[in-house]
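3.2 Worked example (two chains)
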Amino acid sequence: MKKIRFGILGTAVIARKNWKAIHNSGNAIITAVASRDIARSRKFIAEFQREARFPATPRAFGSYEELIASPDVDAVYMPLPTGLRKEWVIRAAKAGKHVVCEKPCAADLPELQEMISACQRNKVQFMDGVMFMHSKRLMLLRKTLDDTKSIGKIKRIATQLSFNAPDDFLRGNIRMQSPLEPHGCLGDLGWYCIRFTLCALNWQMPRRVRAHILSQAGTKKSRGTVPTEFSAELFFDKDTSASFYCSFITENQAWANVSGTKGYLRVDDFVLPFLGDKLSFEVFNSKFAVRGCDFEMTRNARQLSVKEHANSARDAQETNLFRNFAAQVQSGKLNKDWPMWSLKTQQVMEACFTSARQGREVKLSDSK
């Protein structure tokens, strides 16, 4: 079957990882890279062709318009800043190009709704770039949550995603510029926490949220500040709740904890897996007993694993993402779940952002 031909719109750092993911997919290739500076496109292509070579060298473009108009591109991978995505997703859709969009997908919910509507009208596939959604570990985690014995009824989910950014990041990175990345660490990191929570709860939406910006900053190019530390509480039906914390100023952590009536599970690397060829999580069914004067707690832990490389391999989650996307495009049918995942994640993120900015609890109906 013909391989899906990707064009990369922009040369952001994450595009390096996804160059190799597309190369490893087996059913997709890169045929073009665009930047607003053609020299940058050429440099990007030359560097990564040396590391993961495509049979035909991808073409360099000096404008996004040229790539979108190219007849040699079937799908566009879009790592452009959030504030720029709406225009180019819609242009790509109108040109009949399928879209893999980095996250957070849009500056606000109406923008994302417009972007997805454009894809639907033009019968092209839309998907965001959350890699862990395409890991075999997530399938095993889903099976564990659904077995009714390991965890029982989910009562509480807690997640944290953080990294301690260097000073040059805080002074100049685009993620610190409010016009380009208005949600700061909430968009860059909190998106993953929200996505994991919604996925674990089978896409049930919270009824209300309460969130806080714990610290904020901006660069000289910002009109205002963006969150650098953010926390939120999400309240669902049936007395289920969730919390998350994300930060640009706290050291590397990416854990998720799901607690239920019969046990709990913990994933220590739910976003970017630790190096190795095995992805794992632990399930705990601790037991407590009183024996005379002794209060005894037994751990009762078991580790569940899948064979899957952490990154840069044919079975890694980022490769699975592009392989799954290309296979969907080849099928000639549109996957309706993928845009739904993005819309729900965006809606919850927006509700959290509104709550934090306005200092009040927000009902999800208020954020639409």
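3.2.1 Second chain
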Amino acid sequence: MELPLMMRQAQIFSDHPSGRCTNTFFETLLMTRLLRVACFAILVSVLQQPVHAEDWPQWMGPNRDGTWTETGILTRFPEGGPKKLWSKPIAGGFSGPAVSHGSVVVMDYHHKYSAVVNDPIKRNSLVGDERVLCFDSKTGKELWKFSYPCKYEISYASGPRCTATIDADQIYTLGAMGNLHCLSAQKGEVIWQKYFPKDYDAPVPIWGFCGHPLVYKNLLICLVGGKGSVAVAFDKTTGKEIWKQLSAKEQGYCPPTLIHSGGVDQLLIWHSTALNSLDPLTGEKHWSVDLKPSYGMAIAAPQKHNQHLYAGGIGWQSVMLKLDAKKPGVSEIWRGQKDTSIYPSNATPLFHDGTLYGCDCMSGHFKAVDLDSGKRLWETAAPTRGLGKSDGQKHGTAFAVRNAEHFYLLSETGELIIAKLTREKYTELARSKLIEPTGEAFGRKVAWSHPAFADQCIFVRNDVEIACFSLAKE
């Protein structure tokens, strides 16, 4: 309505004898108004587009810190629990789902054996195929599958440990025996591959290769093993080795971890005897701190909060470091004792509001610890055992993810818990069974796979299925 009127007014003045002076003015006015209307129309169009859902393209989320930022999420469950959107059969494994651009990628191990007896100190010998499966995140429809023969010689041989790392149109997977693949995201075709035991003379750890691959700029950084090659950086497009660094009796199981401190990016590699900081582009070592967990079980990723850096594991081995703000370097704040700190294994602890929260593998309890002193503030078996339970179990596990002020904990029991965690107490708000614990550990059934949170949903797996549940508010 407005634009035709303006055009008629401009034409009247243009036809008038004096219009030669005013015509330019009205042309400018008309173009200005047209531009404003066009900009408004574009803005409305953008606002009407659906908001892009958050992806979960790797282990522990977009930034590998257990933080989920989507909004409109349930903080209480409806009667009967969250709505199940789909489920599909898969085989065994600890590998968590990764979600990106409408696809869900998960690894498993397909073999003919009806049951596998786990012994923490004995390797199982199995013959089967490791597989990478890709599903549509909305429907669960299988999009493609990649598999390769793989003989297992590891303890807890149910399947792969590492969550796939999705980077744009490439997917990186690391199997339990050291098979690294770069696959096309569209069809699952092999772009390049490595086999760590052959290419680097890397010993297969008793519990398999577990270090989730890390993408940094043009590099793919992996925990490998072998002399001088505990950490190796590859060109992520071609697979060419760019650098390798560190030697250790055992490479451990801890994923490569990136932090920014002292004005630079630092790559943290925790192997069986020390926590090391490297330049992620060159592999040059910045600093190293002794930290020797029992059985070489460097597992949980080091966690940073402001200038605090925590790492810990089994055998009452933990340390809180202060990061130098001006250059790569650290100083020690405290070391854990039997009655202080947290000693994690399967699940990485999280920082929140000056407090460290996580599962303690020594007691099986979920604990809260003060950053500056290491003092335990409270502990409970509720996330790992159930409400009303006070006794813990070996390596009791609950995978914690924070969304705003709420924590979402997937228990080894297969239950999803919504809780508030403060320095004062653990407050459980809701609990619902999502999936059956199908694995075996220390004589009990467990679900030991980190979930993915994307598209306002949770994606979970066990040794028989992968499933998607909606966590969106109605």
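3.3 Remarks
The first helix runs from residue 2 to 15.
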